[in-house]
Design a protein that fits this description.
The chain has 247 residues and is an alpha/beta fold. The protein has eight helices and six strands. Strands 3-4-2-1-5-6 form a six-stranded parallel sheet, sandwiched between helices. The longest helix is centred in the middle third of the chain and has 24 residues. The protein binds farnesyl diphosphate (FPP).
Length: 247
């Protein structure tokens, strides 16, 4: 079934976050090394980014590399970094053609020099685009982000530029990597795993979660549309009752 035509363009989520999972299992099914799965995952990234830009989704955040992923075998980590560097530089032109701005969240200082360099260049070269913002979560984990925010808040208190009684949700928000972004209304995870794996723990407080059995390299535009459609058919209550939402 084609889901695109069923999407209500007036009820689009502003921000969609995706945990791209299942590359390793996909490769294993083909009798190949894990990196083959990551390489094929790039096509799914391309399709999803294109679909998001076509619809006019404002923010798309992809969990590309977690803090915990550093613990994978060295060869896989290196191959993934190479793939990221290569893809980012190869895709900059297409990002500009589609008016997509690139941003990144995470402990970017821990990335290899060449990766960080390519990333910063692509961010700089796409910074004036305004159709869709593609956010890559790289060397990202939510607990790292929260610890980082708490340290900065503590520093302000030490400097006496902030007092404990002034701390609000907005204060915490302002120290997160996502400070300038709307919260994701929809979080998609592929590969049948039902976890959030240290991803945007604060920001996903009221998000709708959508899980699909599809492995990431098999994920296509129509799967993305299906997730949006499912989101549009759900009722978001933010702690209220259904009756309160109608009145
Ligand atoms: C999870 O699958 C996927 C990753 C850790 C990496 C995702 C990276 C890409 C798709 C490469 C390109 C990305 C961009 C943004 C250019 P897994 O390895 O955990 O799969 P498994 O659970 O089956 O082992």
């Amino acid at each position: 079934m084609d889901f695109k035509d069923k999407i209500n363009l007036n009820k689009l989520p502003q921000h969609i976050a995706i945990i791209m999972d299942g590359n390793g299992r996909w490769a294993k099914q083909q009798g190949e090394e894990r990196i083959f799965g990551h390489e094929n995952g790039v096509k799914s990234v391309r399709e999803t980014v294109e679909a998001a830009a076509e619809l006019g989704i404002q923010y798309l955040t992809l969990y590309a590399f977690s803090t915990e992923n550093w613990n994978r075998p060295k060869e896989e980590v290196m191959a993934l970094m190479q793939l990221l560097v290569h893809t980012i530089s190869a895709e900059t032109k297409t990002l500009n053609e589609n008016k997509i701005r690139l941003q990144a969240i995470g402990d970017l200082k821990s990335l290899p020099q060449d990766c960080l360099h390519e990333l910063n260049e692509a961010i700089e070269n796409t910074k004036n685009n305004s159709r869709t913002t593609l956010v890559l979560a790289l060397s990202y984990s939510s607990r790292w982000e929260i610890v980082n925010a708490v340290k900065q808040i503590a520093q302000q208190i030490e400097n006496k530029t902030l007092s404990a009684s002034q701390i609000s949700e907005e204060t915490i928000n302002s120290f997160l990597c996502t400070a300038s972004m709307p919260e994701p209304e929809l979080m998609i995870r592929t590969s049948g795993e039902h976890r959030i794996s240290n991803f945007l723990l604060w920001q996903l407080a009221y998000s709708e979660f959508y899980f699909t059995e599809k492995l990431w390299p098999d994920f296509r535009k129509n799967d993305f549309y299906e997730a949006i459609l499912e989101y549009q058919n759900r009722e978001r209550r933010f702690g209220k009752t259904s009756e309160q939402l109608i009145s």
